[in-house]
Write a structure and sequence with these properties.
single chain; alpha+beta; Ribosomal Protein S8, Chain: A, domain 1; six-stranded antiparallel β-sheet; four-stranded antiparallel β-sheet; 20 helices; zinc ion binding; zinc-finger; IBR_dom; ubl conjugation pathway; ubiquitin binding
Length: about 725
């Protein structure tokens, strides 16, 4: 999973994670290209007629012998009118028969060969050059291939640019003794490989080629894409090659800017719906991009939509996406009402339910509906999909069962009498055809057991345990048992959620590859070690968690990032803070200064940012250090201090109803005779109807302080 080997144990708990990403060198390939002349020899051809010599010369210079083009070597005594020709640039393996074949119909009377230009073999020269280069830097790789061509080539790979530059400066033009004084030529060749999605590269090829054209005027630069070895490979390595670090850095930055695209936003908010990661959503995005000639990429890992194309066309697609979200939000997300209290529900359980649902679905999607003077049952409404509603109902049923068990713990005899007929989760009688009994012997409603498995997704849910004996049963559900109850895709999804929950619970131990579209994980380090992603081959700085920043320390890189400064300014302006445990950015709308991170479930003090393991520790800290959970001993004004009459109504309308947020422009209340999921719109009065405000049954959230204000101010 995610490029790692994952071991699971009983209860679908993750036992071990071994990322495949391994430590390597730099993501820049630092080579020195070495070129030298291979040995050659000359031959003297004698002719009886000057005309034959001239005709043979024309045939020879138009031919190629063992990969080389023969050429006339002028001398003080020889010219085209003489009876002999001195021919040079001949491979040392050239023989008389080869020369006569090249002369065709004008054969020489005699052929005499001279000595090779130097006697050293290819391997001897290659080894000599490698040894000399090694005196100025560590050669970590040497590749040379003998050929029949005039020039021989070899490549030396170094670990640092400084060493490679020193080698070039010292030995370029060096007269090698083994070459009898002939020079060797050295040049620096730097290569950076960037993995690019194949479909994206096809769309951006023209833009990337333009970068090559723009920078070639400054010196050597080449940008080459390598064909994938198999048809199933999603990434294509894009190689940027140059002899200049500065030019290479320019080209790399330009390519990365193009590859980053434009993140679609609506105002300051990033545009995203989970719908965009479904096959239907991906099809919609592709069709929208085709219509406007823009490439649209849905990144489900980052939860962003990236746009590639001309600025004007990108703006059109961005506007269309914002409109799509506005127009379809209510069709994708419905309002689902769930009953809360019953006669067995202990006092205070509503708070527990509300807080758990907020942690799962977000405060903007959960609203508490208090019972009115009509003595209706309290409800909580969830804004989301039908799957979200099912999950919310499962949470309520589970907490309901916990509350009933806790309330009846004192009546152990009654519990003993009913434990064989009631579901361990919901405490309801189980029909005979719906009974499921794990090895520990407790009774489950089959749907409750599967729901426990299907909705387990937080670190606290694993390992999965039996909930029997008032949740005191310590039996862990085995993997074979889970496999026997769940369908194959449900079982695989359970393992995937357990793995994701494990990653969330260990945010400092694992990070995702920064390459767009790659979901491989690696283990961070503190020493800046470079790891290579096994999926897309990106070299990653395991401290900064970005593509390796060649030539800069982690500190230098962070100081060079302008976006970091902008992000810090945004956090300061909005009051957002980073979770002290996992680093996730958190914004607090209201409430006390105890905050629980929705990502890693860690607890923190909003006043000073200190992290805690338990919520009780935060409250004790707030009281002793900061003088109270809200401020200096008192609840702040946003909780209703000093509000009265219409002031409280305005506060309730703006804060509890989302201040006109899509889908919540009206207050909702359950109809007196409605079914569980039926609601009626009671509306919010216009300004001209202010005299009727007292009759409007606004929905209030049961958050504690608001609950206490209901009697005093409502």
């Amino acid at each position: 999973m995610a490029g790692a080997s994952v071991s699971f144990g009983a209860g679908a708990q993750v036992l071990a994670v071994n990322p495949a990403a391994t430590s390597t060198g730099s993501n820049m390939l630092i080579n020195v290209k070495c070129v030298w002349y291979q040995p050659s020899k000359t031959a003297v051809l004698g002719f009886g007629e000057g005309a034959d010599a001239r005709a043979a010369l024309m045939s020879l210079t138009a031919s190629e012998i063992k990969g080389r083009a023969p050429r006339l070597v002028p001398t003080a005594l020889d010219d085209t009118s003489t009876l002999s020709l001195r021919i040079g640039n001949l491979h040392i393996g050239t023989n008389e028969e080869m020369l006569r074949d090249a002369c065709k119909d004008h054969q020489p009377w005699s052929v005499t060969f001279g000595e090779p230009s130097y006697p050293s073999t290819f391997d001897e020269v290659s080894q000599s050059i490698q040894e000399r280069l090694s005196t100025k830097g560590k050669v970590i790789a040497w590749k040379s291939t003998e050929s029949i061509k005039k020039r021989a080539e070899a490549t030396a790979t170094f670990q640092s640019i400084k060493e490679a530059q020193s080698v070039v400066s010292m030995f370029d033009g060096y007269r090698l003794p083994q070459l009898r004084g002939s020079r060797i030529s050295l040049s620096l060749v730097l290569t950076v490989k960037i993995p690019v999605l194949r479909v994206l590269l096809q769309r951006l090829r023209a833009s990337i080629s333009q970068i090559k054209v723009d920078l070639q005027s400054e010196g050597h630069l080449d940008i080459v894409s390598c064909a994938p070895q198999t048809a199933v490979e999603y990434f294509t390595p894009l190689s940027i090659v140059s002899d200049s670090v500065q030019r290479l850095a320019k080209a790399k930055a330009a390519v990365e800017k193009i590859l980053a695209g434009h993140t679609a936003k609506s105002g300051q908010d990033t545009i995203w719906l989970d719908f965009f990661s479904t096959p239907e959503g991906i099809t919609y995005l592709r069709d929208l991009g085709t219509k406007h000639d823009v490439f649209v990429y849905s990144n489900k890992t980052e939860r962003t939509v990236s746009l590639y194309g001309e600025n004007e066309k990108v703006a059109l697609v961005e506007t269309a996406l914002a409109k799509f979200i506005t127009n379809t939000r209510l069709s994708l997300f419905s309002i689902h009402a769930i009953k809360l209290n019953n006669e067995d529900w202990p006092t205070g359980t509503n708070d527990l339910v509300y807080n758990e649902l907020v942690a799962r679905f977000g405060i903007q999607n959960v609203h508490f509906k208090a019972a009115t003077e009509l003595n209706l049952i309290d409800q909580v409404t969830i804004l989301g999909t039908s799957e979200d509603a099912d999950r919310a109902k499962w949470i309520v049923r589970q907490l309901n069962g916990d509350a009933i068990r806790a309330k009846s713990s004192a009546a152990s005899e009654q519990a003993a009498n009913t434990k064989d007929t009631e579901c361990a989760v919901c405490c309801c009688p189980v029909p005979a055809d719906e009974i499921y009994t794990p090895p520990c012997g407790h009774i489950y409603d089959h749907s409750c057991f599967t729901s426990q498995c299907l909705y387990a997704d937080s670190p606290h849910d694993f390992p999965l345990r039996c909930l029997g004996a008032a949740s005191k049963c310590t039996a862990i559900l085995s993997l074979p048992e889970l496999q026997s109850v769940l369908k194959r895709d449900e079982f695989d999804a359970l393992l995937a959620r357990s793995f994701t929950a494990h990653l969330r619970a260990h945010p400092t131990d694992y990070r995702y590859c920064p390459t767009a579209g790659c979901e491989t994980i690696y283990s961070p380090t503190e020493d800046g070690a470079v790891v290579t992603c096994p999926a897309c081959l990106t070299a990653i700085c395991s401290s900064c968690h970005v593509a390796n920043h060649e030539g800069m320390t982690c500190r230098q890189y962070k100081l060079s990032k302008v976006e970091d400064t902008k992000f810090a300014a945004w956090k300061k302006k909005t009051g957002a803070q980073a979770c002290p445990k996992c680093g996730a950015v958190i914004m607090k709308a209201d409430g006390c200064n105890h905050v629980q991170c929705a990502s890693c479930k860690g607890h923190m003090c909003w006043r000073c940012g200190k992290g805690f393991e338990q919520s009780g520790d935060v409250y004790a800290h707030l009281t002793s250090v900061h003088g109270g959970v809200f401020g200096e001993g008192e609840a702040p004004d946003e909780w209703g201090q000093g509000l009265g009459g219409a002031g409280f109504v305005d506060f309730a309308q703006d804060d509890l109803l989302g201040n006109g947020e899509a889908g919540w422009g009206n207050a909702w209340m359950p109809a007196p005779d409605a079914e569980e999921d039926q609601l009626i719109d009671v509306g919010i009065p216009d300004e001209e109807d202010e005299e009727e405000e007292d009759e409007v049954p606004l929905a209030l959230r049961d958050d504690g302080p608001v609950e206490r204000l209901i009697d005093d101010r409502w």
